[in-house]
Design goal:
By secondary structure, the protein is of the alpha/beta class. Helices cover 49% and strands 14% of the residues. α1 links the parallel β1 and β2. α4 crosses α10 and α7 packs across α9. The termini are far apart.
Length: 220
Amino acid sequence: MENKIKIYLADDHQVLLDGLLILLKTVANFEVVGFSLNGYNLYEEVEKTNADVLILDLNMPEKDGIEVIKEFAQKGIPCKVIILSSYDDLKLIKEVMRLGANGYLTKQCAGENIVEAIQAVSNGEDYFCRSVREKIFNLVTKDNQKVNPNFTLANTILTERELEVITLISLELSGKEISDKLFISTNTVETHRKNIMKKIGAKNTIGLVKYAIKNNLIKD
């Protein structure tokens, strides 16, 4: 029998919670184990239910989503966190990525993407809806975008060459463009990509970008 993914919902809008409950109950391997209308004691509730995935609204009363993520990071809870927000503000997106959120959905796209997002983060991937992905890649592909000059090799598990490769991947260069820029073969680029993903635990390009942003490799 397939293990069910245990999901905890946290949003201060009961109507939205009711809609999510109805939707998630249609997925055979999903189990909603609890819900909260505020951020108070959310850490304790998620830990008590042994939830695998937390769907978290950023604008929660008593304790907002940012405070909740910080608490999770400090206490080391293994639950995956998908942010659910009315906004796709780049400052918020960058902040939650740096704090370790595994996904970010706007409420406008939640109904369409939430099942896929839960399945992805449960599989160790990072998931961001289309509008959020576009903002992330726009951040790292600005014409004046450069590697952060304050970044030092001592801050990372990656080698100097791997740092060059992950930066260029984050800037959406193709394998051929990276090989031309670094004077290495496309096979070598692919080897570096695989090694980087293995080292940082990323499973897709957005995971690489998240690592670059979280570790301040790319200058804002």
